[in-house]
Task: inverse folding
């Protein structure tokens, strides 16, 4: 089903703004390893809505919002499942693969996923822009790979921001978006007998 | 005794008096120092162990301390001044996000020639990973110039200022990763004060110059620390094989869109918009 208004994207955007404006919500929603351990599992999903500064919020929402709007026009309400899947798998990955991480917040994993989905769709279409889209896809993957492998990403802690960037969230977001893209493309290509 | 002979004796006496006075009051050198090398490597014959690759667990727990030094004579660099300097260095490090805690280590915990064994004790006692060892070297020269000779021979002790006092100071901060025994970086702060005083207030003047020298050198040190820290960050990025960086348990992480990804997305969205407007 296609929709005119990107309701799912707007919902995530508005929840992120509200969560970041209200300190009590930040404490209730943030990914907090200790709290998750005692059963507050919703934080695996809701942690993405929390941001640590205005710059953090604006950067994440800008990219997530524009890319989300574009892919929601294409996918319709199905995009809600993509957001849910990315949030859950990123949260679980951080829990399993990064036990030193005490608190986490930020929507960039989903923003990376959205942009990847968008570029992958462009690369999949037989248009004159296809080579450009393929090149962009390669650049994006190389950037994520470099962020993940190089210690420079770890050294973000040396810059004046109150948190360390976690490239794992971006990598998992992109992997989840890629998986979702393959599934939805197969479904759309499937011709009933 | 001939007049010529009398003049020769007078001249000889004058020279003797001048030399004697020069010997009493001239060319006095005051030297105060503490040395990181003497503290860390007291046994010169013992081979130095090679440092291993440091594993920096961010954010770091940092300690700041003065290395034990020679017990100085009457200098302006009192314990209060030392504490003030350590406080300034500590505040400087506290501004950075890569520092989680900063501990000022009292001098009594550092034993002269204590080396890395002493640092290991401090590491366990204070729970620190990295230590900033501050040392100093100050020399005060009291050179007598022509004016002081004139003062002694002709005029009087209170009228003409004659002493020319130069104070050279260096305050050095060396940052060590204790576990790997690797020096991460160092920054020196230096100052040079030219002073003049009469013999009446010489001692007080030297004390003031000493204190001022330490203050100026400390200010210079803080500036140099920033420069060296920036170079160190660059070195860590360029030579990842030499420094292992990990996160301390309990760190705060964020999903953050960086400048590179913002530019990438901006170009992508801009290109798409342009393509659509052309198609329409």
Result:
């Amino acid at each position: 089903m296609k929709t005119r208004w990107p309701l799912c994207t707007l919902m995530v955007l508005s929840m992120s703004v509200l969560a970041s404006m209200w300190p009590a919500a930040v404490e209730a929603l943030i990914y907090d390893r200790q709290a998750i351990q005692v059963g507050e599992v919703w934080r695996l999903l809701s942690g993405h809505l929390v941001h640590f500064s205005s710059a953090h919020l604006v950067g994440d929402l800008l990219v997530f919002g524009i890319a989300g709007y574009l892919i929601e026009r294409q996918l319709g309400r199905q995009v809600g499942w993509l957001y849910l899947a990315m949030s859950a798998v990123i949260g679980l990955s951080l829990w399993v693969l990064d036990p030193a991480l005490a608190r986490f917040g930020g929507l960039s994993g989903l923003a990376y996923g959205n942009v990847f989905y968008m570029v992958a769709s462009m690369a999949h279409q037989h248009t004159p822009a296809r080579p450009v889209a393929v090149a962009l896809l390669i650049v994006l993957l190389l950037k994520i790979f470099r962020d993940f492998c190089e210690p420079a990403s770890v050294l973000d802690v040396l810059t004046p921001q109150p948190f360390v960037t976690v490239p794992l969230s971006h990598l998992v977001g992109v992997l989840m978006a890629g998986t979702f893209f393959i599934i939805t493309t197969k479904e759309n290509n499937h011709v009933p007998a | 005794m001939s007049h010529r002979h009398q003049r020769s004796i007078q001249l000889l006496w004058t020279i003797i008096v001048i030399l004697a006075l020069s010997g009493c009051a001239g060319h006095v050198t005051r030297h105060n120092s503490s040395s990181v090398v003497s503290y860390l490597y007291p046994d010169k014959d013992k081979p130095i162990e090679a440092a291993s690759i440091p594993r920096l667990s961010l954010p770091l727990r940092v300690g700041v301390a003065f290395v034990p030094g020679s017990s100085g004579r009457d200098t302006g660099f009192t314990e209060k001044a030392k504490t003030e300097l350590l406080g300034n260095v500590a505040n400087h490090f506290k501004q950075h996000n890569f520092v989680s805690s900063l501990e000022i280590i009292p001098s009594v915990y550092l034993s002269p020639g204590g080396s890395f064994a002493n640092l290991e004790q401090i590491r366990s006692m204070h729970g620190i990973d990295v230590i900033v060892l501050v040392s100093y070297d100050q020399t005060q020269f009291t050179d007598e110039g022509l004016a002081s000779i004139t003062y002694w021979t002709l005029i009087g002790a209170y009228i003409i200022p004659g002493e020319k006092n130069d104070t050279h100071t260096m305050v050095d901060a060396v940052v060590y990763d204790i576990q790997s025994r690797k020096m991460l970086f160092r920054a020196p702060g230096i100052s040079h004060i030219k002073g003049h005083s009469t013999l009446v207030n010489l001692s007080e003047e030297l004390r003031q110059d000493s204190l001022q020298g330490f203050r100026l050198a400390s200010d210079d040190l803080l500036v140099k620390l920033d420069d060296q820290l920036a170079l160190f960050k660059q070195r860590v990025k360029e030579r990842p094989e030499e420094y292992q960086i990990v996160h301390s348990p309990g760190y705060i992480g964020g999903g953050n869109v960086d400048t590179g990804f913002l530019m990438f997305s901006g170009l992508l969205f801009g290109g798409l918009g342009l393509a659509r407007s052309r198609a329409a």
Remarks:
- The longest strand of chain A covers residues 101-105.
